[in-house]
């Protein structure tokens, strides 16, 4: 999937997490940290691809990960989820829980979307088993464009529900 689809997926996943856990909105700083982390997490797995949005911004790191592990391996696996859940916990910061959960929610949205592509993901890396949904699409296709449009609509509906409807 392309970066715009992943970004929208991160927002939808974050809003869905907030809606389905029935948590009331916290302080603005907590909400911004959570959603910022969800959006960042939705892009982080593609650090392994030098041509990706983040890969272009972190060329040395991206090329190193790509040459060492390959694309859609370690950064698209359970290891990435674990590292991004634990890493913020080592920071003595009042928003570490929002950061930690937001990152994981964003990464999970990325992995789900990439599992809906023809290449799939290696969720159990280092085991060479690829996971892919039985229905899948090609990155950049018309189907992906439609998925991104639906995610945008769903993001808008969920955010309106979370921050406007819930106030009344």
TrEMBL record:
Pfam families: YdjM
Superkingdom, taxonomy of origin: Bacteria
Transmembrane stretches, start-end: 73-91, 146-165
Keywords tagged on the record: Hydrolase, Membrane, Transmembrane, Transmembrane helix
GO terms, molecular function: hydrolase activity
Keyword Transmembrane helix assigned: yes
Entries under InterPro entries matching the protein: YdjM (IPR016956), YdjM-like (IPR007404)
PANTHER family with a match to the protein in the record: INNER MEMBRANE PROTEIN YBCI-RELATED (PTHR35531:SF1)
Protein name: Metal-dependent hydrolase
Species of provenance: Fictibacillus norfolkensis
